[in-house]
Fold:
Amino acid sequence: MTTFFLNRLATEPHALAFAGQSTPWPVALADQTTDPSLDEALRGHVAAAGRLLTPVAADLLATTGRPVDLFGFAPNPARLGAAADATASVEGVALTQLGALLDLEHLGYSVAQAKPLAVLGHSQGVLAVHMTRAIEAAGSIEAAGTTLDEILAVAALIGAAGTRRVRELGLNPKYGEASPMLSVKGATREQVEALVARVNNARGPISIAVTNSDNHHVLSGYPEDLAAFALEAEREHQHQAKLREQKLHGGTVFNPTLEYLEVTLPFHSPLMTDAVEQTVAWAGACGFDQKRTRALAEEVLLNHVDWNARVKALFDDADPSKLWIVDLGPGNTLGKLIGNVVQGTGIGVVEATTLAERSTLSTLESEPERTQNWKAFAPRVINTPAGAKLVTKFSKLTGKPPVLLPGMTPTTVEPEIVAAAANAGYWAELAGGGQVTAEVFDRHIAALEDELEEGRTVEFNAMFMDRYLWNLQFGSSRIVPKKRTSGAPIDGVVVSAGIPELDEAVELIKNLQADGLPYVSFKPGTVDQIRQVVRIAKAVAPTTIMVQVEGGEAGGHHSWEALDDLLAATYAEVRACDNLVLVAGGGIGTPERAADYISGQWAHAYGLPDMPVDGVLIGTAAMTAKEAHTSPEVKQLLVKTPGIPADAKSDDVFAPQAAHWVPSGKSVGGMSSGLSHLHADIYELENDSAECGRLLVRVMKHPEELDSRRKEIIEALNKTAKPYFGDLASMTYLEWAQRFAELAFPWVDPTYADRFQHLLQRIEARVNDTDSGEFTSKLFAADGVSAEEAAAAGLLTHDDILADPAPALEKLALAYPQTAELKVVPTDVAWFPVLVREYPKPMPFVPVIDNDLLRWWGQDQLWQSEDQRYSADSVRAIPGPISVAGITTIDEPIADILGRFETAAIKRVQDEQQAADAAENDDFAALGEATSAEDFIRKSPNISWVGHITDNPAYGTALGDQYYEIRAFDAAAGKYDLDIHLDTYWDNDPDGGTSKHAVRDIVIPLIVEGTEPGRVPVVDRERLIPDVYAMLAATAGIGNTAITGDKLTEMPQLDGKTSDERPFATATAAYTLSANLGFDHEAATGAALPTTLQPSRIAPDALVGPAWPAIYTALGSVYVKGYPVIEGLLNAVHLDHLIELEVNEEDLLKHTGETITLKSWAEDYFESASGRVVTIHVTHTAADGTLLARETERFAIRGRVYSDALPADAPEFGDAEHEEIAPTPRRLLRRVKVVAPHDMTAFARTSGDFNPIHTSYHAARVAGMDAPLVHGMWLSATAQLFLDFYLAAAKTDRLWSSGSAHKKAFMTKS
Structure:
């Protein structure tokens, strides 16, 4: 039976809530009086209340000046106007609430029977609370009628007594825009009290009348006093805004929202003490319950209302996620106030303030919307084979613990620390800021692949606003996606330093995921940027993305936004996106603080419920890790730096509560806030470098001081790792060269040596005797001269410069002694900055003191903190000012550092679970909360295939999927087989097609390490070899009877003889040149051509079909570093194909019925940008020894890219050796459109190539395609037939020549 919502309330925990003053009660009353029965009832209650007031009617009339007609006020939802007068509004508000109770009764909801868990009254809403309790006590509204009338009458007394009192006080309800009550939103109680204390010469007390939430208060008092308060609030806002503008602190600027309430009394104020007594006195004259009257009058006129506490008290009485609060108005203001207090609890706030809303609830079968329940995002601890692990949205998505090592320049530029963190199972970002060239990136990825355990992955942190790096890494050059396509162990990208526009971001996510990068994250630092990421998430739903919210407390370049402010302002919006994972960073420097954020308890400081994040960024703590290249001296300084304690408090009550800041240009706790060469704020250790930076910033702001403070500037520069080069005009040419080598060697970048050599060449050109033109160098060998020849001639090569500049300096001094005397001329002085800027990598010195001084000095400094040549005082090191306080160890392994943070979070969550008596589940892994190894495999987006990360074919399949079967091979050892059952053309045959040859299975042997989180399933190299050779044999047709009638029982054998030309031996096979080979092959290819064209008896490519076993045997013979190249068989593509006929068609067909011998062999593999290229050669020889044909087949194993070299071009004219062949202009002779068959099984049968990517949808998807791929050889054969047909139709030589001297070749490229 259907139960409507109002009826269900009788069995579900719920509370009723009633609003107070400054609400649109005339609108509610007008709505209610449209119901005739309600109108009659309400008018009856008003009349009855009026009769009860007869003893004091004269006093009341004297106060109001005229009779009050509650039904006579015009309804205006925007403004109360005259209806705001307390002589009408107090009773009017109570009357509409009685009307709501009457309406609910008519709709089937009985207060007496439903027995709400609580009845809440905001301000004067307490009158309705007493009405409700009276109904409960009496058993019905009718039985409580007298009490209800008396409460209405008391309401009228309260309004009249209050009005009389304000007149006695001389309190004018209007003072300009001010009224007797002021709403202050965005200020704590402490801040409000501080501002109240600043109001001088106040006429009376300014009291906090109502506390709506921790940062929303309502004041009562004289309007002019409240206006003075508003002025003080504005002054403080201006002061705090100035501090923020001057960057003396960050965080949200104190800026409360002030709104005067539309009332005529200062409710809940000590000014109303006498009004309470007046109310009680009048009530006594009327014979009312004076105890109740006093309680009501004090609640409305005198007492402070802690609405925040009243609502939160409900949390102790019922599970908030099952509780309903029904707002009965008037108006919807109260619902909003309730929502602000209960956000994140799951409480359902139901608006029932109008007849229509209540009527809808009476027939509502579904459940109204609830507020977000942030407990749904609470972390949990599960027991796994790897021990206790945290489950958050982050760990469910990635399988990695919610403790992340972020991208940081320079700390995570080098691969060692990234690999160490990843090997321990953690998310670890390679910093893109240091991957400045393709060569550097290649070197770092190669090192990563060497250091990473198989199955481990890392992530890439990219800087969106750096156009050079972005274009290099993801734009035009795309070095990162290309590397990922080749199997590099990168599974995620973090877009930092800017957020793309919506359309660009959507396209970027689509492309990155297509490139095999399933985890895409954005790193905003402002509220607007976070909201942009929310828009992006909504646009790409259901695709899951991440947002890494970073506050201004982070190290290095920083904003002035506090992390807590950012989270509090946007948390609800972020959590409204199911496909958005929330990670936080900036100032999380201790394990305890990380536990605060993961558990959500950080929010308690703001009176908010638990607001857990899904992961935390741990950056600064990694700077002293064992694997970090930070110099030992800098590591010591990091430990000694006190920083700013996380619990530090400001003396300024108006300063942002959450943030701890180093003022710009100042130093606090051994930390400095300066400017980088980009004029962006940057946190750094306080040392000589920071002091120099402050000086240069000042000089850049006051360029007139550049000359007057030149000596001071040089002294400051020379204390840093980037000193002043010196005044060139006072140097000799030899001193110039010596100074360059002194400051730049050892070269940290090869372009340093390039520039040094260019300098020497410039000097030699300057001092050489030759006045103009070319001269013979006494220093350097000419280009193309070998090192041996140069040494014999006593000359230097570039390699000599790279090794050591000293010999070059000696040779310069000996060859040109005048360089020790000759001063550098002005032309060369001016040229020197040009030399320094010759390459992107800046030099480690300041070449000139000019208006660009900050850039000269500030560029490319961070690597020096990792170079032991430089002292800790001289380098720029950039930890976070709070997190640096948490650094207590040196050379602790990064796995242990991150482990401490993870352990603290686990312990915190376990304590919470135990307190809540919640059990820990037993799961296999955090990834998708996998319950078993099979479940884990199906939830892993990637697998590791012989050292290459590739898409997992079983990803997203359901447990028990009939096509993707996962079987335990040795469960105890974590070994499983992923058996992909392939669809075939023959599946609907009565026998299921088993009598027909096809590749029916792809078996991928996997190892799953349940004890090692963060590792993807790994292909078992040992078990893969037999599986892939079995697939190779099936692909070659072994087990089938070929179209030639030959039974294929096994793969051809290799002779074991190797040579330079045949490094992997030679295979021998044979086939019968059957009479049907030509026309059966033509039926599967030429059938697509127009019927007007007549076929030849056999196409050259028909000979390829019987050769596939030989071809695949040769392919399978190739080994790379001891492992067969066909491990990548599923990624193999037929790059190009060449067949050369040594005889004409007539002579070939003379051998019909004979056995043809095949010889096949492979060249050594070639690493190329297209993959690993393997070239196979095949010869077809008749029984009489006649060579009939030669084949050359090239294959590329995709996803195996270890070189930028392009594969060699396919040879012109098929490499055929014909003297009469000459290039001719291309011209269109005829155009023919052919349509490939929908299914390629017929061609597989006739051609002998059973590669399942051409015939099976499941196999095609394993290879990364949406549908089977048309055989390239089908197109080749079809093109051959067309050309032959065309030549015949043109009455010229056909493709087959009748002249025995002619060799015919056909070449196709895939």
About this structure: Residues 145-169 form the longest helix (25 residues).
